[in-house]
Recover the amino acids of this structure.
């Protein structure tokens, strides 16, 4: 797979795992991802995703693993990620993120930043 993350991804409302690792995906993570309420795993590392981590991703209530390593993401880590009750893995290393890690994130979570 290559190109942009499809906008119609948000139509897959029963999706539990999104594994798009190492696919040469570009541009931003699409905001319709917030419609994926059953999503437990996002594994989207080793692409060329850019822009900020969308705060809307925090609406994926069941998320346990968020791996966005080795992309071109920039900006700060959204405070909204503190909403995740089940997040156990947050993997963001090798991006161009800036700012501080929000203290509310990571009490029961493995952080790789």
């Amino acid at each position: 797979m290559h190109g942009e993350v499809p906008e119609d991804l948000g139509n897959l409302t029963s999706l539990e795992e999104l594994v798009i690792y190492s696919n040469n995906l570009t541009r931003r993570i699409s905001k319709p991802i917030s419609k994926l309420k059953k999503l437990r795993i996002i594994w989207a590392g080793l692409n060329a995703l850019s822009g900020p981590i969308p705060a809307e991703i925090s609406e994926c209530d069941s998320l346990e693993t968020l791996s966005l390593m080795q992309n071109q993401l920039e900006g700060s880590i959204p405070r909204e990620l503190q909403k995740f009750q089940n997040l156990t893995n947050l993997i963001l290393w090798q991006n161009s993120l800036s700012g501080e890690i929000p203290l509310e994130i990571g009490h029961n979570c493995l952080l790789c930043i």
About this structure: DSSP finds no helices and ten strands in the chain. The beta strands are 3-4, 17-19, 25-27, 41-43, 48-51, 65-67, 72-75, 89-91, 96-97, 110-112.
